[in-house]
């Protein structure tokens, strides 16, 4: 993927990094959720029959216009009346239908092609198989059906795709420049990667992933400073009693409350005077006898909740950790990242005009 994304470039800027990790993340989701192994050379650019745009263009548009989709995506307007709608609303409805057709097409392909006796290796097959079974068994609990209608199934796949895209892409999009800007951290991480992947044929998920403690520390540290969810708002439907150390606190039903994740993960009172610095080693503790490293919890008094916690914890937490690990491990197994001062790029790099990233190896192939 990286060879294809940057084949002609000697050095890349922060926008190129974001563009590449966006494309990567979309492909991972297409494979993990839909079992679609699309090639990087245009697989997602194919425009399917009956659709106006490719899956990639459709998905990018939806992400950029998410608010419009939420506001107007469910309008039921007959086709003959659509010409009278403002063009943006028409685009919202048509793009949403394009997207649903792609999902339906993938689902249909899987139903025809999949060997039902095999265990599923992608999410959509798992969901469809469990849902079909629940539907056949007419599963009902406390008077409510326990299976999804087709519409609900597609809505869930849509949410999975949306929730899994920007979050992971942003985490990778920040981590790659951080590693370039902090060469000592990069060397520290490479040391771990090299020692864990010495066995060339190791299985990434079962054997390598659990041993990459520094890798997870790097991910945590990026999420601590650049977490996708900075504020989370919830409402409790009924009165709720919280047991505090010295008293009980009753929160009346229908109270909106927010969790300020940004402040929880940066407050110097808990994280120390360098709380604003990107320092992944803060997450590591070492056993004094064995020298073995393990991940530390957040400091006492605060909480680290980038995926939230409790019954609504992010269901893609492990998925994102494995995706992050696979991506960074692949890059650092073959390349080193280096930040380069380039003044001519100042006008296109509003984040930090002096930072560019280049490979230390041959012609560029980040
Ligand atoms: C670093 C990556 C990720 C982060 C930081 C993250 C974070 C979160 C957070 C904080 C929530 C809860 C939002 C709230 O309660 O207001 C959430 C929900 C969710 N996430 Fe993730 N997520 C990540 C990756 C993924 C991936 C890869 C997937 C899917 C493959 C995914 C699927 C979902 C879904 C479906 C929900 C909604 C769950 C519900 O409504 O109960 N996430 N995520």
TrEMBL record:
InterPro entries: Cyt_P450 (IPR001128), Cyt_P450_E_grp-I (IPR002401), Cyt_P450_sf (IPR036396), Insect_CytP450_Detox (IPR050476)
Transmembrane residue ranges: none
UniProt cofactor(s): heme
UniProt keywords, alphabetically: Heme, Iron, Metal-binding, Monooxygenase, Oxidoreductase
A family per Pfam: p450
Record-stated family: Belongs to the cytochrome P450 family.
Protein name: Cytochrome P450
